[in-house]
Amino acid sequence: MKNWTRVAIAALMTSVAAPAMAEECIAPANPGGGWDFTCRQIGRIMTDLGIAPNLVQVTNLAGAGGGVAYTQVVSSRNDDPEVFVAASSATTTRLAQNAFAGATADQVRWVGTIGGDPGVIVVAKDSEYQNLADLVEAVKADPSKVAFAGGSAVGGFDHLKVLMMLDKAGFSEARQVKYIGLDGGADAVTQTVGGFAQAMTGDLSEITGFIKSGDVRPIAVLSEERVAGFDDVPTAKEQGVDIVAMNWRGIYVPKGISDERYDEWVDALQKVGASDEWQQVMAENGLAPYDVFGADFEAFVADNIAQIQDVSKEIGLLK
Amino acid sequence: MDILSNLAMGFEIAASPYTLLLAVIGCFVGTIIGALPGLGPSNGVALLIPISFSMGLDAISALVLLTSVYYGAMYGGRISSILLNIPGDEPAMMTTLDGYPMAKQGRAAEALVVSGVASFVGAFAATIGLMIFAPYLARVAFKFGPAEYFALYMLAFCTLGGIGSNNQAKSALAAAIGLAIAMIGLDKTTGMPRFTFGELHLMDGVDFLVAIVGLFAVAEVFFFIETHGKDSAIGVKLGKILVPWKMLRQTSGAMARGTGIGFVSGVLPGAGASLGSFLAYMAEKSASRDKASFGTGNPAGVAAPEAGNNAAAGGALVPMLTLGVPGSGTTAVLLALLLTLNITPGPLLFTERPEVVWSLIAALLIANIVLLLMNVPMIKIFVHILSVPAWILLPGVTMVAFVGIYSLTGSSFDMLMMVGFGVLGYVMRKLSIPTVPVILGILLGNAMEDNLRRAMVLSNGDWTFLFSSPIAIGLWIAAILGFVAPIFLRGLLKKPALPDNDPTTIED
């Protein structure tokens, strides 16, 4: 009995921590989050397409919002050609705000992104705000009357979406904007439906159910174009506020690998992004196409970080 | 009628021989995971997610397996609470208070049976509650804003006074230590790290599992070494298992009340199973005519929190399924599982994917019955695992604690922190300061602070906002009563407050 238990537990442990012989994807969070999803889907498709001969091993390395994985890749796996790490706008946001214990974005190589979760601004179904202009006017008139709820902490991507949107719309007093950070988009929607917050920002996929059930009304989606399946939701751009905020899903690899290997990764990711399997995954999970690869992506990340640093300085998160 | 036909559909999907086998395996593994300190329901389920993928299970089978593990762990947590004075997981913490004294008096078997039945009552009733009321209960979450949540957590802390020790100041001290530890990590309201000293591993705060395993399991090991096994919890013998019908009848009220309280706290996202078992225990204690016997082996003190935590586990599925808001760490993992299976919980889940919901409910009912059978007639199997000689068990507990904590984040930092908590737990036990309030502080402190500060942001700093809704006012009144009542009751009963060094206040 005893032995059996031990064996079972040992089996549980090793199946998670088994050493990887082939490609390994590090998800810097626990199973089930967005990064875990990125790893598992990209890994599965790589295997299906024959890009990775073996099963891609997914390792969950949670901590510090991706910081633990980031610093570990930089410090101890800098020349490992077989490892790649899931990343998203949360990664660049934290890098920009120096939340990874001094690590910087140029310590790894950014491979690309193959999809994005469009940002969205919603209000409760009986809200007085009919469109983005109404909401912006209300904030301009009295910022203390409009509270935004979001699924990330102050300074996180959901908060930055609000600030960047208002900035583009001509309200730059970032510190006066009321924002409460909750644990995830669904929690933030609950507070908005309950009337505690007047508007909510989040990723579209998190709150699809609430939009379809009619509990909340989307007033703007923060993508380049309208999103398939939500064709009646106007973009912020259409409403005169030039902002795109996509929570992109992509990967980075260690800095120390050869250029050839980096190019192989870019190529592999492009193949995954173009595959039918990935198109299906995106459709099922409310992701919109968002493809940037290689050198373009490195430039995109640098821009993104500069932009976030500007906003973060305004709200006092950075000096 | 709708419910019955839906349920029949659920059983049709979920009750194949293969899924039943998975349920039995899941329940068995779950009970063991729950019973082992350091492996709680949330990391148990998290560990099994990759396995269910590599086994190539379809959505329904994976759900059956993992919900069986989830419920199994909720049942299993009590076993080590009662036999070792080490909670197998955080909601089983309250069960140590009366369960372990019962075991020391040679009533371990009764404690296990009563708590097993209480777990069943709580979980079964909660599943039925989920089945009938889920769509309506989802709306309750919309009524709870920051002010209401803050009042709810205040209620928990206000009733904390009489826990474990009769010295209120020591409980308050322990709670303050817990609240202080809860401040470590990223502050959600400013986005700044606090007390992390530049250490990345502290950015997410201190995981309560690290604290619980350190304060209970590791401290127990230190204590064992010091006393050479005398007076230590490890090595309690178990007699023959008989069903104590009389005791079950006597505790039926406690089970029913525990179930009700647990279910409600489960339904509120952010409260969760630990709050459920805590409030169930405290309510039972204050409702009882025989308060003094709580903490010394009162069966009602075992039945109430076990019914409470299992009912909360079921209740927590309500916001998870209908809103996509996980009410506890474990439902967060289950939510993740659903998302990976392309099932998005939310307001439309019940109408869009009825087959998923109803087969899940059917799976829960099946798991409960399997678990009742495993945990009452077959309890000896699990007890054997824990009743090996101390020289095997002690290293075993230590190993499982280290492996379990390592599996949380894969960092050695957490293991060192766990040892630190072990030392803290040992010192606190020497000073007879209860450790349960520390855990409660860590568990609820963050959420309490976040909600207070959200409330202040929303109201532009107006503190009267905290009392601005009927729900909040009701919770405040309950909190004040919970704080004040024991003082007056003690006067009425003409029992003087016990002096500091009274031997009965020592927990072990």
TrEMBL record, chain A:
Q: Span of the secretion signal? A: 1-22
- Pfam family example for this protein? TctC
Q: Which Gene3D superfamilies does the annotation name? A: Bordetella uptake gene, domain 1, Periplasmic binding protein-like II
Q: Which UniProt keywords apply?
A: Signal
What domain of life does the native source organism fall in? Bacteria
InterPro entries, per this entry?
Answer: BUG, Bug_dom1
Q: Does the keyword Signal apply?
A: yes
The yes or no answer to whether the keyword Signal is present is yes
Family membership noted in the UniProt record:
Belongs to the UPF0065 (bug) family.
Write the protein's name: Tripartite tricarboxylate transporter substrate-binding protein
The species this protein was found in: Paracoccus onchidii
UniProtKB/TrEMBL annotation, chain B:
Record-annotated DUF112 domain positions: 20-440
Q: Which Pfam families match?
A: TctA
Q: Note the superkingdom of the native organism.
A: Bacteria
- The UniProt record lists the keyword Membrane: yes
Q: Which UniProt keywords apply?
A: Membrane, Transmembrane, Transmembrane helix
Does the record bear Transmembrane helix in its keywords?
Answer: yes
Query: Which positions make up the signal peptide?
Result: none
- What transmembrane ranges does the database entry give? 20-39, 46-71, 111-134, 146-163, 169-186, 206-225, 261-283, 330-350, 356-374, 381-406, 426-444, 465-489
Q: Which InterPro entries match?
A: DUF112_TM
Which named protein is this? Tripartite tricarboxylate transporter permease
Q: Which organism is it from?
A: Paracoccus onchidii
